[in-house]
From TrEMBL:
Domain of life from the UniProt record: Bacteria
Domain Methyltransferase type intervals: 51-145
Gene Ontology MF annotations: S-adenosylmethionine-dependent methyltransferase activity
Organism taxonomic ancestry: Bacteria, Bacillati, Actinomycetota, Actinomycetes, Micromonosporales
Native organism: Phytohabitans rumicis
Gene3D superfamilies given in the database record: Vaccinia Virus protein VP39
Record protein name field: Methyltransferase type 11 domain-containing protein
Length: 271
């Protein structure tokens, strides 16, 4: 199937509805450390123009602003942008949050010295177009820095589990492919020199596997939306399937969850 046969706009509209369901920042805020590590790895400097793509509630934008960069966050989910603005105001950080699509960024060419995304742009259905946009808005010699879940990690398995209940749209590549060097090479070609590709782990910490399942079903928008379509025994089976993912990767022995999930931290220089 060619990309022209895929209705990306319809897919994005459904995605947006998912992210605007539940209360994603209740999950996303727990991932702040990924953004802090990413901006450090990218060596962000004070005064640099930094863009956080698919920013959600602004983890990477806030991390950059704490280092006195001129930070902007862009996302198509307006409820997440509103929470980003609230977070920035609470921390007295001058971050600009703009509504926009990762596949059609509302900025001129070469607008930013550093373009970031923490487990965000990877969800754009038209992966090539999103990659092209990252390159377009990055100034030559600037950096692109990405943190993306890998196929083999816990979140990769979580997505596969969810996919057994709600198969992904036909023809759309799995988002976790962004967490592989091979896919980054396919998407960016010789336009970006990847100077650092590092596998890291983020540890999900919850009271129990059941708590992990409940938290994601209640707050992680796409899963919340799916869960709302189920009833009776299906609801219980879905809940247990999610808990099983946490059990599979859990390394805690006290009843709580401390489950590492692999992600790829990629730092590149735009040629």
């Amino acid at each position: 199937m060619t990309s022209t046969a895929i209705d990306f706009e319809s897919i994005k509209n459904k995605q947006r509805a998912g992210w605007e369901t539940g209360d994603y920042p209740r999950v996303g805020n727990t991932l702040q450390i990924i953004a802090e590590l990413l901006v450090e790895a990218a060596d962000v400097r004070a005064g640099q123009r930094v863009l956080d793509v698919a920013s959600g509630q602004g983890n990477a934008a806030l991390a950059a602003a704490r280092r006195f960069a001129e930070a902007t966050g862009v996302d198509y989910a307006t409820n997440l942008l509103a929470q980003g603005r609230d977070r920035a105001a609470a921390e007295y950080l001058p971050v600009t949050f703009t509504e926009g699509d990762a596949e059609q960024l509302p900025f001129p060419d070469a607008s930013f010295d550093l373009v970031l995304s923490t487990v965000g742009v990877m969800f754009a259905p038209d992966q090539q177009r999103a990659a092209d946009e990252l390159v377009r808005v990055t100034a030559p010699g600037g950096k692109i820095a990405l943190a993306s879940w890998t196929p083999a990690g816990m979140v990769g398995h979580l997505f596969k589990t969810v996919g057994t209940w709600a198969p992904p749209p036909a023809g759309v590549r799995p988002p976790t492919l962004w967490g592989t060097p091979e896919r980054l090479t396919e998407l960016f070609g010789d336009r970006v020199d990847w100077v650092s590709l590092t596998k890291r782990e983020y540890v999900f910490r919850y009271h129990s596997p059941a708590h992990f399942s409940q938290w994601f079903r209640e707050f992680y928008g796409p899963i919340t939306k799916l869960s709302g379509t189920l009833s009776g025994a299906d609801t219980e089976r879905f809940a247990d399937d999610l808990a099983d993912v946490a059990r599979q990767f859990n390394r805690a022995d006290d009843g709580t969850v401390a489950a590492p999930s692999e992600y790829l931290e990629a730092i590149g220089v735009r040629r």
